[in-house]
Every structure is written in C-alpha cells, then in structure tokens.
Model the fold of this input.
Amino acid sequence: MRYTWPMTSSSVPLLPSTERALLHRIAVAQSEGRTPSLVGAVARSGRLVWTASRGDVASPADTQYRVGSITKTFTAVLVMRLRDEGLLDLDAPLERYLPGTGVGDVTAAQLLSHSGGLAAETPSPWWERTPGETRPDLASVLGERPLAHPPGRRHHYSNTGYTLLGSLVSALRGTSWEESLHAEILEPLGMARTTSLPVAPYATGWAVHPWADVLLPEPAEDLGLMAPAGQLWSTATDLCRFATFLAEGDERVLSRESVREMRTPAAPPLAGDGDGGYGLGVQLARREGRTLVGHSGSLPGFVAGLWAGVDDDVAAVVLANATSGPQPGVLAADLVRIVAEAEPRLPEPWRPLPQVDPDLLALTGPWYWGTYAYGLKVLADGEVELQPLRGAGRGSRFRPRPDGTWTGLDGYYDGEVLRVVRRRDGSVSHLDLGSFVFTREPYEPGDAVPGGVDEGGWRGMP
Done:
C-alpha cells in the first residue's frame, strides 16, 4: 500500500518490484521480531512514497507510536535555534544560563553530543516506567552523583543530559519545552500528528514474553521533566517529514547550514559500535558505504528508527509496538538501502552558472602544493572546490566570506581559511590555505614557497 502527501509533477512513485522488496523486509522483521504491529515508510525527494504495515494497524501512515529517543533530535533543534538567534553560546558553561544544577561547567555542545560526562539514567526508580511526578525537579533527575565521567573526555549516552537541555530551552524561552516544540518545529513542518500524549488512532505498547507468544501491556507514563529525552508520539508520515528536514533543512525552522552542523561528527563511536558516531543531537552511521543520519528510540512497549541517506535522497522510518524484538535502526537502514540500490538517485541536470566573477574564473585550474597537483573549480553561489587531481588527498569545498577569503566546509580544511595572495602589481602570487602555499607551478621560483627554491632549478639525476 502506498500513501503520499501531496504529489508534484516531479514525484515519481516506486517501482512495484521495489515496493515488493520493502514489504518483504518489514514482513520478515515483524514475524521474526514477534511484534504485534510494525509500520515501515520511505520518503524520497521530500515526499512520502511508500508505507505499509504488518499486524494490527488500522492506518499505517497515520497511527501514532511512541518514538522514544528520536525526541532528543527535536530537542536538539530547539537548542540550535537558540544558538542561531544569539541567545545561547553552545560552548559556554551551562551555569551561565541554568544556574544551580551542580554540573554548571558542562556545555550545551557537550550535552548535545553526549560528551558532557553525565550519568546515563536518573536515580531509581526506572524513569521510563514511572510517572514524571517521581522526579519533580532537576536535583531529583540528576541525583547525588550526576557525573559518570569528566566532561568532554568521551561519548557517554545520557538521558539526563537531554533533560537539562529541555530545561535550558524553557529557561531561555520563558515557556515550556512542549510549547516551544509545537510553535518552533511541529507547526512549521506540518507535523500535526506529533504530540506529547497519544491522540487516536494510536498503538498500544506491549511486552512480548520471550519464551511464549503472549503479551503484557506496558504503561505509557507522562515523563515530566524527562520528556525532552523521550516523550513524543508520532506517525510514519510526520517522521518522514522530519527526516526530510534533517537532510535539507528548512528556513522556517533551521537553516541548511545549521542542520549540516548537527550532522557533523561531534563525538566518536564507542568501541564495538562500528563507523558513525554522534553529531549535535543526531546519530551517524556508515552502512555499506552509505552515510546515514537520524536516531533510534525505545520506551517500554515501543521501538522506532529513523534514518536519512542524504546523498541518496532517501529516508526511512520504522515503528513497532513491542518492548524488544525488531531492530528498528537496522530495519530502517535496510529500507534506505533497498530503494537506493534498486532506484539510484538521478543526478541533477547540468546547468551553466548564471554569471561568474572574471577574477574568480581566473583562479580556476591547476595549483600545486609542493609537487602535489590540485584543481580549483568554481561552484554555485561563489563557492569553490579544491581537490587533488590524482589519487587520494586533502580536498574541500569553500564558502566565500565578505573579506574576500573563503572558509572550508568539509574534509581536512573544514573551518580553515583560503586566501589569494597578490603581488604589488595586483597579479596573483599564490593561494594560502592554513599556511600551505599553492602555486601555479610546482616549486615556482620566488619568495612564495616557504624555505625558497634551489637556484639550480629542476635537473636530472647526477
């Protein structure tokens, strides 16, 4: 079964063979994972192109499931909005904005990337199965030993850290985390079926006996202060919208550049976790050469997974109502892979630039760092790309700055400054990139090459 939010002429439905492969994958997952119901959904080019379910689901596209820690990514977007508005310095001590927590030296950036050293969980009782009133304030959330590791040393997943971030949002906005979430993310993105408490139709959460095919209902508690770490209920349709946002950004919520910053690794993966790591509120993964961004989630009675393959322009969501069994992160990654391999993304049509600065055009072509050959290419919006012409090497894209220099956007030179150095007569002498000198000829004679060039010039072996 296929459901789409409003189609455009550029929306292309999936091939029947691709749909059959997707359906088979979720059917196997629901059967082997022994979950009462399971929903899978795929978005491509910003459109929901497929959704299906197995088990007892009245409306696969519109039935709410609890999404657990996918909530954290929403909280992270709220924090990034505060930063972009100049209300928050991500690298400032938390004490500046939220005094009296006892962990004031930790920064918002560290909390976003789970590198603040905070404990993973609250003190007993288990917060996911007890009412939020059990923890009425931050002191009861953090406990007597809030830190498990020194801040900034390592990645240690922390639910309590995202409670602090939710409280930070409330303190700086002067409103509740939930109100900020609705006004700043859910309403602009049209996510009307994403809520803090369930709204029918919604799935019931179940525990499945590990040794018998019988069920036990799980409690669905309002988590109170812990809500920013895992409270939300959502649907396949809404989460595909959010996955598209994580891939593309949306100026009504967060710019493309800020979303790209969220997707940049900020903490390495733990030993045994494989490639990937954690950005600012998003999990990162490498699967069969494919880069995925998103998050997984679980609360008693529910598991969920959301991945966006940015380069493939494909996103997938998996929702199930069992405490354990199916692996939603693995399954969502498989759905992305099935579509990306069966129907590879078509490249954008080549189009000439509308105009180009002649001085910038004159900088294109080969440059040499020592004897390494590089090529400089003009991109759209005044950006340039400097890449090795042969073999592997250090390459990056650069964005123009008002002072006539460029800032690296990725790779080895991410954040580094590229500038053109001119002679007294105005002609270009060389490019300076983080003190590395790029000349038009390898070891071009003159004072541009640090250490100088042998006066004898190039020669054969004596």
